[in-house]
Amino acid sequence: MLPIYIAMPCWDTTLNFTENSIMNRPAPAPTQFLSVEDVAAIVARVGLASTLSRMADYIEADYRRWQDFDKCARVASHSKEGVIELMPIADASSYAFKYVNGHPKNTGAGLPTVMAFGVLADVASGRPELLSELTLTTALRTAAMSAVAARALARPNSKSMALIGNGAQSEFQALAFHHLLGIQEIRLFDTDPQASRKLIANLRHTPLRLTLCASIGEAVRGADIVTTVTADKSNATILTPELIEPGMHINGVGGDCPGKTELHPDVLRASSVFVEYEPQTRIEGDLQQMPADFAVTELWQVLKQQAPGRSRADQITLFDSVGFALEDYSALRYLRDCARELGLGQALSLIPALANPKDLFGLIRPLSQAAPPQAAASGAAPRGAAPRSAAPEAARQELALVL
Ligand SMILES: NC(=O)c1ccc[n+]([C@@H]2O[C@H](COP(=O)([O-])OP(=O)(O)OC[C@H]3O[C@@H](n4cnc5c(N)ncnc54)[C@H](O)[C@@H]3O)[C@@H](O)[C@H]2O)c1
């Protein structure tokens, strides 16, 4: 094997001072990791009703300071079977992103339709503070967001909800509407009867009255709220205009990708339509079927009382939900605060803890190579944990790497 010689540049004589001050600094806190089990433990300790309610409060508080955020539509990579999306957002202090997919045929192969993880980072330094599972969290935050929208848009005395699509998201939707809006009856329909049976089994110990229906029409008839949360990579028509009754609030969750919709265009025409972030919903929501000038209202305006929500009891309101990065930012913030409070999560060795941040090479310095003098004097950290900087003396010489 040939030795490769790399000529090192002349060492800056001021470096010793810089290094010494760096080495006296406390090491930055490691990235925290929240696994699926950690998030499940948070829900178990806090309680599902409180988790949904507190997450809804975080989301609503962040939506009320809409102007603080640097926003963009998510970046989507489409394939024949599904989509993989990256959802970034930031304010002056925190940056968040979520990785999420949508593959409706996954369940046949033993995988969830939607899987996700995400990061919360410190804007001032770029340091990732938290890496968390977001599959379970997406179901929680989507249900909390649906409830935030419905609290502003549905008739206040709403008691029954049709729930079309009884897959992974459905129980969370049912319970968010029960706990946050007082919904007492859920009228279920899914093309897969096993999915509805699973929902009924999961919610049988709750006070909810669960009515299994034989068709979408039967489920929707007389319901105060209609939630559509189906998964099919097609322009489906789960709701047609003749099913819609005056005063209904529609929570359209499953139409969230180009070529993947749930509502007949006339349902949108009959409704006052509310969206999360208009540029994204025009591409991804049921709104994609409508002309570019079709009127919609962004929900933050209603929450800040800058635009009306429901103004009449017989008005049909529609929340065309697609899932916006701000909800994941809020959810990550909630998880970070909760994990701190409860002492949950693990320190993750994701970013090197360097005694001298300029000595990244110390991580891979051969063990046989002598530790730099400063490092030895101040107590050399174990290799890989907090390696010390290369000795200026040694660095003046040529460094030989044997491949
Ligand atoms: N808007 C958001 O923020 C958001 C967040 C998460 C998921 N979603 C979307 O919600 C949908 C549901 O997600 P999931 O994780 O519950 O998926 P899932 O695959 O677990 O469940 C979907 C259910 O829809 C049923 N279904 C399909 N076509 C139907 C039809 N025509 N009528 C009745 N039922 C039908 C399926 O049988 C299945 O049980 C997906 O489309 C997903 O992309 C949206």
Descriptive overview:
The protein is 32% helix and 22% strand. It contains 13 helices and 19 strands. By secondary structure, it is an alpha/beta fold. Helix 9 links the parallel strand 15 (272-275) and strand 16 (297-298). It has helices spanning 15-24, 36-46, 48-63, 135-153, 170-181, 193-203, 216-220, 265-269, 278-284, 299-303, 325-342, 373-377, 392-396, and strands spanning 3-6, 31-34, 75-78, 83-90, 94-102, 116-122, 128-133, 160-164, 185-189, 209-212, 225-228, 235-239, 249-252, 261-263, 272-275, 297-298, 317-320, 346-348, 399-402. The model is unreliable at 1-20 and 375-403 (pLDDT under 50). Helix 3 (48-63) packs across helix 4 (135-153), helix 3 (48-63) crosses helix 11 and helix 4 (135-153) packs across helix 5. Strands 10-9-8-11-13-17-15-16 form an 8-stranded parallel β-sheet. A 7-stranded mixed β-sheet has the order 3-4-5-6-7-2-18. It starts with a strand and ends with a strand. It has 2 domains: 31-136 and 328-348, ornithine cyclodeaminase, domain 1; 155-323, Rossmann fold. The structure holds nicotinamide-adenine-dinucleotide. Nicotinamide-adenine-dinucleotide is lined by residues 102, 104, 107, 113-114, 138, 142, 164-170, 189-192, 195, 229-232, 236, 238, 253-254, 256, 321-323.
